[in-house]
Amino acid sequence: MAALGADVIATKRSGPFAPAPPGLRWLSDNNDELLREADVVVVAVPGSTSGLINATALGLMKPRALLVPIAAGAVDFAALEAVLNARPALRAVLDVWPSGCWDDDEASCGPPYGPRDWPGSPAFASLPNVVALPGLAMRDARFWADSAALAGANLRALAAGQPVQHVVRNATHSGRSPTGAAWQTSFLSLE
To answer: Could you tell me which Gene3D superfamilies the record lists for this protein (predicted)?
Structure first.
C-alpha cells in the first residue's frame, strides 16, 4: 500500500515492529487512536479474537472510513449492520461472516461454495455502503482443485446431455432497514 502512496499505520498488542517493514509507520499500541486516524481499517487478527470491532470501535472511525475485516470473530455483526445503516458514509468490504466458511473449522470451502449465512444478513447485501462477498479470500488450494474438478465434471455432463451440479440462480431479497427504508437486492444463489 505504501508503494501506492498510502500512509500505512499499524498497531499491535506487543508493541512496535522491530524492524518495521518498509513503508509502515508505527502509530501506537492504542487501537482507539488507530481507528480515529485511519481512512481504511484492515482488521487482521487471530480468528479467536472476539468483539474488537464493536459499536464503540465503529463510532471512533472517520465518517468515510472503510472497514475490511479478515477475521469474523473480531466483528460484532449486529453492531456493524446497525452502524452501517445509521452512517451511510461509513463503508465496509465483508468477506467473512459469523459462521465462517460452511462451518468448516479448517476454513476450507468446497462445493457448494460460500458460508451458509451469506450474506450474514440479507440487509448487508442491500446496503449501498457494503461490498458483500461470499468468503472468497479464505479459499485454499483444496477449494481451487475442487472447483476445477467440478467445472470439468459439469462440462462433461453438459456435453453428454446430463444434468450439471450446483446450478447458480439469481435470488432476490427485499425488506426494510432499521430506519424503515425499503430495500431489494439480487445476488446469485446455489441450488
So the answer is: NAD(P)-binding Rossmann-like Domain
Amino acid letter, 28: S
Residue whose entry in the numeric block shows the C-alpha cell 432497514: 177
Ramachandran bin of 23, using left for φ above 0, alpha for ψ from -120 to 50, beta for the remaining angles: left
What CATH number matches the domain at 39-140, 3.20.20.140, 1.25.40.10, 3.40.50.1980, 3.40.50.720?
Answer: 3.40.50.720
Residues 23-38: tens digit of each pLDDT: 777 767 788 988 998 9
Whether pTM > 0.85 for this model: the answer is no
Which among 19, 22, 67, 15 has a CA at the least distance from the CA of 43? 67
Which residues are registered as beta bridge partners of 175? 183
Residue 42 in 3-state DSSP?
A: strand
Query: Can you read off the three cell numbers belonging to residue 135?
Result: 468468503
Alpha helices by DSSP H, listed for 29-161, are: 31-37, 55-60, 77-86, 122-126, 141-159
